[in-house]
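USER: Study each token:
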Amino acid sequence: MAKIPIGYISQQVETPPNLSNLDVPPENEGIAGGEISIRDNNTTGRFLKQEFSLETAVVAKDGDPLKAMEEMAAKGIHFFVLDVGADALLKMADAAKGREILFFNATATDNRLRSQDCRANVMHIAPSRSMYTDALAQFLARKRWRKLFLVTGKRPGDALFAAAMKKSAKKFGGKIVEEKEWAFGPDARRTAQAEVPAFTQDVDYDVLVVADEIGIFGEYLAYRTWEPRLIVGTQGLSPSTWHRTHEQWGSAQLQSRFVKRFKRRMRAKDYQVWAPIRSIGEAAARTNSG
């Protein structure tokens, strides 16, 4: 029996203020996708004398994912699915250079990972910010919603998303007719009803584009703008790798298996962890290797 262990390393990140208990991410988000992917691999693997397993490590915000990677590598693990930031990913990729180790980037969306910081031992599952904004800009162009009002949060990731959106809008014929920074307090739930109408007044636009990657205020813009307008971007109509209504290419069966096992819907992060592990299983099956 060929044993194929896979490592999953996740680092805790900054979370938004607890503005609502209605949509709290599940504790097993991501890892649940990995677990069901291992089950899928073993369904086929048992006929080919292949056994897949998943070893996981959750690293604190101030911890070092490289240490977890080296500990797993010492156990003979060669494949790693990473839920970490770009800097941590690059640190691990550089440390593993020249070794038989392959990384799968499940969540980092930084454009630089596909340009100046590209690494040969990293395969990307998560789209880049530019891929997300290109998809969004193409849809807006198709609908002929070309006049865009861009609202950006204060975090560095918000600025990066906004920069990507500007390039995508220009590429596909859109125009940023107004741009503002969200400079109000952190609890938009309490103040949005009063602030958003005035904030969006006196602007001629088709769509309000929000850049708020961790969800400080974006959820509270909808239905509160001075004119009735669609909200898109990091909230509202958002580009995504996965959605609960997706049914093509075996997705309906995957959705069903996931709900049956975890009693919740599959989310984008679950899919982005499921996909690389399943691809490892498919490669092993096609080459009959371990």
Observations:
- The chain has a mean pLDDT of 94.
- The chain has two domains: 2-126+241-287, 130-233.
- Residues 268-287 form the longest helix (20 residues).
- The two ends are 9 Å apart (CA to CA).
